[in-house]
């Protein structure tokens, strides 16, 4: 019977996404559909799936892998101080912190009301549940609308991250303080020490793993599960919840900067096997018949649903400080989406004896209803802001006959161009021709104050090669993503140019460029026509939109209008085929019409 139950659960996990695709159900999260199917298969209706040792173990692994993947979704770059906005608007981090503070207050307030009217008496535990956010569902909704790189998406992502991290930590401390274990709450610090040790221990070996890994070893996946089991074991040893260990393992894995395909493989393994079992068995364990017969529990469901909404509606005035009123409402509804942490929290509550099976079922049903309604309402209410495709910022240091014509041509496309000069005569000559800024000197302080290094690409077009070398060093120190440096004459006895090249600086001179073009004209006669053709051209774009990662080349949009000649990945060129999978950060070299390049670039290079 145990094998039959497992077979039914796995068949249901296979069938659910197929049926949802056939019925074009896109606004309801798959996790919610799996819980609903669990209702049907379990105690509530058919009773064909019953809990057993194997399914219980797989269910436990499912929640651990789910929380681990949630930890890997945390974008730590969003917590770094952001440069002051020219419009003096509040940044995503400030709005998220202010908004989530309001959520905590509202959750505590509603939990106190429940205690006051006698429906539920554990205020802190209820507040923890009401303040949770389903990070994975929120990220999926933001990815679908390509909002992750925009201020609105970053704010929602931070709110969702706080809605998973803060309740998780609070739940762990609450369980420790209210449990029957004799361990001190200060032992919880050991799990954080263990996470830091693992991070420091595996940072360098992980980079080496990528070089020696092969299909039969999958070292990155082995490391991920080693981190999970280690931190889960440490968490349980100090009396903490295993989900805290899993979440910290995910954060450690994220800080190791895994390759995009590593996260894809872990996501495939989790959502392809373990996590569906967890959600289906969660639904199967709820006895709706008993729940609906109990008038108190039945009355609790709409009250708890109101609680989930009340705890998040306070976000509306906070989000209106930066976003449209309609989008502020849509954002607060999206953050109301909760399910992933609610169920583990309810399991902890039952272990502590502070929540009954009927109350747990009421909380779960209220969370499921919120998880169904909120993404649908968000999709209906959200209004796209004006096109926010971020232009590539290119700064030219040096305004002359070489850089000004290039700047003029690039400015007509998807580039934000600024030239810097320290020569008043050249400023007077070129100021009317391009966006030129006059600096008192090309000193490090003057360039930094002018924001010369706040760019995606810095092109050093100064004639003095010694000065260009110095400028290149300053640009490297300021971590400019791409640096192009001009050196017309080089000292053959000096290795400093090789040092710059090894550091990632792209070095060129017109003599070598002319030789390369001439050789290309001889070996490939169509080169000149390709370079001067007004209808077609040779282009390179970088895939920054995660929507296309994992897709095969033949499945990409615009593929019928372009011809991909090469893919540059991790500094090496690949010969593309129709079934070549696209990775985040791939450079696609292709030929195509000049009329479509702007749309293609905006589609693939939109950060998401």
Automatic annotation (TrEMBL):
Statement: the UniProt record of this protein carries the keyword Membrane: yes
InterPro entries xref list: Cation/H_exchanger_TM, Na+/solute_symporter_sf, NAD(P)-bd_dom_sf, RCK_C, RCK_C_sf, RCK_N
Keywords assigned: Antiport, Ion transport, Membrane, Transmembrane, Transmembrane helix, Transport
Topological category with respect to the lipid bilayer: Multi-pass membrane protein
Every RCK C-terminal domain range: 526-606
Transport recorded as keyword: yes
Transmembrane annotation, as ranges: 95-114, 120-142, 154-173, 185-202, 223-249, 269-286, 298-316, 328-349, 361-382
Superkingdom, taxonomy of origin: Bacteria
Location of the protein in the cell: Membrane
Family: Belongs to the monovalent cation:proton antiporter 2 (CPA2) transporter (TC 2.A.37) family.
Protein name per Swiss-Prot or TrEMBL: Monovalent cation:proton antiporter family protein
Naturally occurring in which organism (per UniProt): Lacticaseibacillus yichunensis
